């Protein structure tokens, strides 16, 4: 029995081993079958990625580009981008990445990409140049004689929008769904996916330069023609550029000439071209795919932003306000147009933009795009200066207002342009101020030390006009001019007074009085002139004091010299001892009183005549005579008090008697 059981166990063990072997083989076959199916599926997917759709083959391999087929090129470009993207890790399993077929396919697509990029770049460069050349050769795009033409780039932008999606595939983009202003340029507000794969980012550099070069030629031509016609259509009489010599009573027609049309013309130039340049900068930044956070989307001609428009071409095509009347409407509210084309950059966006690698490239490109346009603005400033140098004041204020409105990164070069214009205007106005100051200095050579110098009333007339021209932030410019003018006037006045010291005080007081009289109204409203008014007032009082003291001492020298001796001795000896000093006895006092106050009415009359003798401004005589009488009474009162203290027993004419005598004369 045991033997039989042993045989059965052996056979059972062999049977179990055979069954296990069969099961293992079956499992391996099943796994192999599953793996084969999975491999076939993966290979099918890989082969699908290798498939080159025939509809894109002609676009990508064709010898020439056709503008009408640009949408097909964009679709082919998207397929090529996705195909290259699909053959890269992690979109492709790393196991397949190094397969020879994959490497060969990747190389094939790379060659296709290089060929397509080269053809696309050449096509776009030619298109940019052709579009701009067509506009430049058509005179209807520019201002002509008798007709100011507002630049209209609607057709140009419409054409550019056609190529926007094509350009987008030449620039790296993050894999994120976004409503990009760039995509809106291609007439689509749909959400799209822009892949991180690029065709060739290096080709954008030459394309940007080509676009900048072409558009720069157009913008410079537009600015040149507009500025020329603006000057030709502005009718205004020219005021002589002779500084303070202009502002004389005999030249009132020149002084009153209305040159406001000059400021209006300059403001119109800024109203038209500053928003245009900002918009072109912003459009360029988006069209050429610069990654600068915080950029304002480019506006269309109706004033709205491209990023919010479904179809801008309908709005753009009808914007043909060419005649002067429409231009005047545009200029009617230039304050509201200051911020056109630029929106504030948020703090975070601004910080990110400053660190953006594309910001430097954008700044360099904008320099190429807008360089040279400033020349026509400079010509306009020079033209305004030749007509009326004082118009620089209003031009400066207008420029500052536009400058303060430009905030976006795309407006950087426009800010530079406006800043340079400000410097140019300031330099021209400083030139006018310097010339006027030189005229004041030259007048010193021929001026006579008598009467009011001619530049005193002329300056008042000049200041009145300057105040009329102040706009915005030009107050500092005018105040600086006032400081230069008045400083050189006062210095020259003091130097002239030293030519003949005998008449110095009369000369000074007459001129300082004239300065105060002519600037009284302005000094009440202009702080800078108020400061100089008070300075002139102090100088006038000092000159009066010196002159009146000289006249009084001339007539009553012995009397007041006697008083001065007493005052000097009072510092060293007691008052009781003074009458016993040599020359200060009671007898000496009586002699002094007799010689000085005998016929005092005649002495006072002589004082009046002497005051009147060399005075050329008769209107000053009453006030000066009142000051003279008061000064004499003050001095006589001091003398009387000294006599009462030192010579109590002596009798002298009282102050009241002297006051009554002066009042009667």
Automatic annotation (TrEMBL):
Residues 306-336 have a biased composition (Acidic residues). GO terms for molecular function: phosphatidylinositol-4,5-bisphosphate binding. GO terms for biological process: exocytosis; Golgi to plasma membrane transport. Residues 234-256 have a biased composition (Polar residues). One of its GO terms (cellular component) is plasma membrane. Keywords: Coiled coil, Exocytosis, Transport. Residues 361-648 form the Exocyst complex component Sec3 C-terminal domain. Pfam families: Sec3_C-term (PF20654), Sec3_CC (PF09763). PANTHER family: EXOCYST COMPLEX COMPONENT 1 ISOFORM X1, SEC3/SYNTAXIN-RELATED. This is Exocyst complex component Sec3 C-terminal domain-containing protein.
């Amino acid at each position: 029995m045991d033997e039989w059981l042993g045989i059965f166990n052996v056979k059972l063990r062999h049977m179990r081993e055979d069954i296990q072997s069969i099961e293992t083989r079956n499992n391996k076959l099943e796994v192999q079958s599953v793996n084969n199916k999975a491999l076939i599926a993966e290979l099918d997917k890989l082969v699908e990625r290798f498939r080159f759709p025939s509809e894109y083959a002609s676009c990508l391999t064709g010898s020439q580009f056709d503008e009408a087929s640009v949408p097909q090129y964009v679709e082919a470009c998207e397929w090529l981008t996705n195909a290259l993207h699909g053959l890269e890790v992690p979109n492709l399993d790393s196991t397949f990445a190094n397969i020879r077929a994959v490497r060969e396919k990747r190389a094939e697509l790379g060659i296709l990409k290089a060929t397509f990029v080269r053809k696309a770049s050449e096509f776009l460069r030619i298109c940019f140049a052709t579009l701009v050349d067509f506009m430049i050769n058509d005179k209807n795009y520019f201002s002509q004689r008798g007709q100011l033409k507002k630049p209209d780039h609607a057709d140009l932008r419409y054409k550019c929008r056609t190529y926007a999606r094509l350009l987008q595939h030449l620039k790296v983009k993050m894999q994120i769904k976004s409503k990009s202003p760039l995509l809106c340029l291609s007439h689509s507000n749909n959400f799209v996916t822009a892949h991180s794969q690029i065709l060739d980012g290096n080709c954008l550099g030459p394309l940007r330069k080509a676009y900048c070069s072409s558009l720069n030629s157009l913008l410079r031509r537009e600015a040149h023609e507009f500025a020329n016609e603006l000057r030709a259509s502005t009718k205004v009489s020219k005021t002589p550029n002779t500084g303070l010599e202009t502002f004389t009573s005999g030249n009132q027609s020149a002084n009153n000439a209305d040159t406001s049309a000059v400021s209006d013309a300059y403001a119109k130039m800024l109203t038209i071209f500053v928003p245009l340049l900002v918009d072109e900068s912003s459009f360029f930044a988006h069209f050429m795919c610069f990654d600068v956070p915080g950029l304002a989307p480019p506006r269309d001609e109706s004033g709205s932003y491209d990023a919010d428009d479904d179809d801008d071409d309908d709005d753009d095509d009808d914007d043909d306000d060419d005649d002067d009347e429409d231009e005047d409407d545009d200029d009617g509210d230039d304050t509201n147009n200051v911020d056109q084309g630029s929106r504030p950059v948020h703090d975070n966006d601004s910080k990110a933009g400053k660190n953006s690698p594309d910001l430097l490239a954008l700044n360099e490109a904008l320099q190429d795009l807008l360089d040279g346009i400033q020349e026509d603005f400079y010509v306009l400033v020079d033209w305004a200066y030749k007509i009326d140098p004082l118009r620089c004041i209003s031009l400066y204020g207008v420029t500052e207002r536009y400058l303060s409105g430009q905030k976006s990164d795309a407006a950087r070069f426009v800010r530079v342009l406006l800043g340079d214009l400000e410097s140019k205007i300031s330099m021209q106005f400083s030139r006018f101020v310097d010339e006027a100051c030189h005229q004041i200095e030259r007048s010193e050579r021929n001026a006579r030390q008598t009467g009011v110098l001619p530049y005193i009333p002329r300056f008042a007339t000049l200041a009145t006009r300057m105040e009329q021209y102040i706009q915005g932030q030009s107050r500092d410019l005018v105040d600086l001019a006032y400081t230069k003018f008045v400083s050189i006037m006062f210095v020259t006045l003091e130097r002239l007074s030293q030519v003949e010291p005998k008449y110095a005080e009369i000369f000074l007081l007459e001129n300082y009085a004239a300065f105060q009289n002519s600037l009284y109204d302005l000094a009440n409203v202009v702080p800078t002139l108020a400061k100089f008014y008070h300075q002139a007032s102090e100088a006038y009082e000092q000159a009066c004091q010196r002159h009146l003291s000289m006249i009084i001492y001339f007539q009553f020298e012995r009397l007041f010299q006697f008083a001065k001796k007493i005052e000097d001795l009072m510092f060293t000896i007691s008052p009781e001892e003074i009458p016993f000093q040599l020359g200060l006895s009671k007898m000496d006092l009586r002699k002094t009183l007799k010689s000085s106050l005998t016929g005092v009415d005649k002495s006072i009359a002589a004082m009046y005549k002497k005051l009147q003798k060399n005075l050329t401004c008769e209107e000053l005589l009453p006030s000066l005579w009142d000051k003279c009488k008061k000064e004499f009474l003050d001095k006589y009162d001091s003398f009387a008090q000294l006599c009462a203290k030192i010579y109590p027993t002596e009798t002298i004419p009282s102050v009241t008697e002297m006051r009554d005598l002066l009042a009667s004369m």
